[in-house]
Amino acid sequence: xxxxxxxxxxxxxxxxxxxxxxxxxxxxxxxxxxxxxxxxxxxxxxxxxxxxxxxxxxxxxxxxxxxxxxxxxxxxxxxxxxxxxxxxxxxxxxxxxxxxxxxxxxxxxxxxxxxxxxxxxxxxxxxxxxxxxxxxxxxxxxxxxxxxxxxxxxxxxxxxxxxxxxxxxxxxxxxxxxxxxxxxxxxxxxxxxxxxxxxxxxxxxxxxxxxxxxxxxxxxxxxxxxxxxxxxxxxxxxxxxxxxxxxxxxxxxxxxxxxxxxxxxxxxxxxxxxxxxxxxxxxxxxxxxxxxxxxxxxxxxxxxxxxxxxxxxxxxxxxxxxxxxxxxxxxxxxxxxxxxxxxxxxxxxxxxxxxxxxxxxxxxxxxxxxxxxxxxxxxxxxxx
Length: 384
What we know:
single chain, mainly beta, Porin, 16-stranded antiparallel barrel, 3 helices, 3% helix
């Protein structure tokens, strides 16, 4: 799965133009999903295409179960790279990656099922420098579990995010200044989360990688400014406040036996909402005009077992907990999400993977309302 995050070039095509080499790679993926939401209907879209915890409907027990069948190719991906050697012996490289998820638009499933391509990653590297849009330095790409719901794999327990940055480092450590944004909760009967757009300092992210026996580990840290600066308006008085957010994440992959492995991540901190669990909770909430960061704890554990060179399975558990101050957030906000996943994958040859995956997930609010998702997914993925 790390290869798919970066779409490795094992099967890439290549052409040469002057001193610059151009390579392309990617994969074509079909997803077929049957979903059952225990407490209500979910509109056609991202909550039915992938596992997004915040989209699970909840009720106090009076909800009506809703079932849906969906199929799409939105995760299919295209990667274009360039590499230009310099007279100094160094190489300047670029990486452009697109899929059909991040800017999919409103397709007509009655006839065309067409979706817009969207930018995932676009950066240049030179020596130890990376400049552009890439996966956050707070995230470990080496411990991503081998699942079919690749986009949101263990959503509630994982660190996940891509954004513009300036990064310096190598294989053992890295430090980066990354795009800043504060997600703010507006308490209501239907709480809303939105970015303030008022940041003035970049997020500071760093990681260090080390090995202990057969365990490849990464310790990451994040320090950020949360900020809002709104002028007085008909919607309310002027608000200007800032707070400090940050946290740490320990993750890794541990080899077992001949080919088995364990992959895990444990993250904790305050004001990490937009980095963890796909924004299930906000970074902060207002307390009498002052920002107050929301604490959280999240983790994922996955065990991968190859049955033979062609067949393999992963069993995964994941959980997210938010420590909401309900006097500020209200009780209509997510307190906990947890899920369990098991799959069986078959690769008749290296470029093709077929598989089936089952996931059970539960979302619970502070007021005790909850809801469940049961999903069976079939997928095919051909890499080139």
